Give the backbone structure.
Amino acid sequence: MCGIIGYVGKKQAIPVLIAGLEKLEYRGYDSSGVGIINPQTGRIVVHKTQGKIRKLKEILSHHTLPNATLGISHTRWATHGIPNHVNAHPHFDGSKKILLVHNGIIENYQELKHELRRRGHRFLSDTDTEVIAHVIQDHYDGDLFKAVQKAVGVLQGSFALGVICTDHPDTLVAARIGSPLIIGVGNKENFIASDVPAILDATDRVIYLKDNEIAVLTADQVRVFDFKGRKVKPIIHKITFNVDAVQKHGFSHFMLKEIHEQPWVMEHMLKTCLKKDQVVLSGLGLKVRELKNIRNITVVACGTAYHAGMVGRYLIEKLTRIPVSIDVSSEFRYRDPILDKRNLIVTISQSGETADTLAAVREARSKGAKVVSICNVLGSSLTRESDGVLYTHAGPEIGVASTKAYTAQIAMMTLLALYLGTVRKSIALKERKALIRELRKIPDLFQQVLKDKQKIAKIAKQNSHFGCFLFLGRNINFPTALEGALKLKEISYIPAEGYAAGEMKHGPIALIDEYRAVVCVAPQSDVYEKMISNMQEIRARKGKIIAVATRGDRAIRHHAHSVMYIPVVHPLFSPLVAALPLQLFAYHVAVQLGCDVDQPRNLAKSVTVE
Ligand code: AGP
């Protein structure tokens, strides 16, 4: 997944493009580039480089930049062609008149390239993107809109495009299928971008370009058409969060800032979804009759969202007695699942753009199942392809390692379980009231954990030398162990595996010796004693134990070498609170090792390609 931005207006384009691009760097950061039309020469000027945007800025600082007011720019997460100067975007056509940036994957680019080569086109890069520029050239007869319209007609795959041409020095053309693209509507200036943060400095009015739509932008006008050339009346949305939301506010990393935002996110969600002892889920999109008619639920998601789904499964089964299965999206979409209209599919995605999850939704709907999505990004593709959407409203999540979205997703699954339990009368009013009382305590419990952040940082530093970690949990905290391991490995690159503690004796215990650290998620619960026996087995084999335990639990100190305490919390809600010490632990280990916490290698904020 990449980040693209385009500008047409009265200002000098390059500073606007680079400032916006920096706000998209979480989408991919292995190479970047910018292209403008020089108003003096009428020719296109391109600067691109391997590496982060700061390297591109460095290069630009050595050039006298023409006062161009039209340009496109790109930050890359390589799919076709290694991250290097040649494969970086933007890419030219053969005539050097047309230039474009692209986010997505063209599946038939090899055939197109072969055919174009046969007709004399020459290619400089290994990318699928450069082929698009040559396909547009192939259809170009002076009308850029028409050429792009014909080109998108032969492309297969996913794409968000930004195209400029020397013959039209005041026009920016954009098109999309599958990959996100927004239009920022300004005052005598207009933008295209992969995501809202890139244009928030200039405007809070955006158009979410839909699949199979093309837009033609000039400084004074935005026109939208479908791929058949029919005019479309776009809806302009007003963005509710401001540029502040995408600043670090004095935190050294977005991840740390977002960890600290969780009490506010939780407070806000409970305020929105709890009316006295009632759960109110606006946007669920299903009638009470349909909810009563559900035979079983399948949760589908990827990565951290999948772990939130696993916690949700325990809660929904516990509070509604509806059987819940869970699948990673990339497996669900190809396993030909047995579904019908009495199946409810709950998909979870922070970005709402994860390709595998989108494909899973299409698979489920093609089989008549209803789809409710838990999502954090307004207007994202997933929200447009679901029967109902439960927004987590956690605000923009910039750090690639998901934190606040994770606990918000678990909280939304909890509210969904309580709501379904109420509608289906599987939970007594007394029990619901008691659980809602416990849920209302969570924001404060988060605050209490954050107060201990220095202690957690110290434990992290003391244990950051270990070359391999195992994370263990049981029952509703088995997914917590999986998530703890994912957080550590994705930002510190230390091999870490999450495991159901009961599985230890069936293999992983072979890993245990004095060079291994084991994080045991062991808050007070009805499986606590089982966790203690696991810890004794590990200790007997000289393994180093770091426990997550309930404040006041002094006994655990006999088993663990270090303890990260969490306040007393209802066992059903312990995964919410236990997540925070694990997020902080991973964060401080990564910082200790000098890793790029917000932009870990090889990762991207959401994976819009399969
Ligand atoms: C989590 O820290 C990772 N960024 C990744 O596993 C992520 O959860 C996964 O790619 C799913 O993304 P989504 O929630 O945007 O669909």
Remarks:
- The longest strand covers residues 98-106.
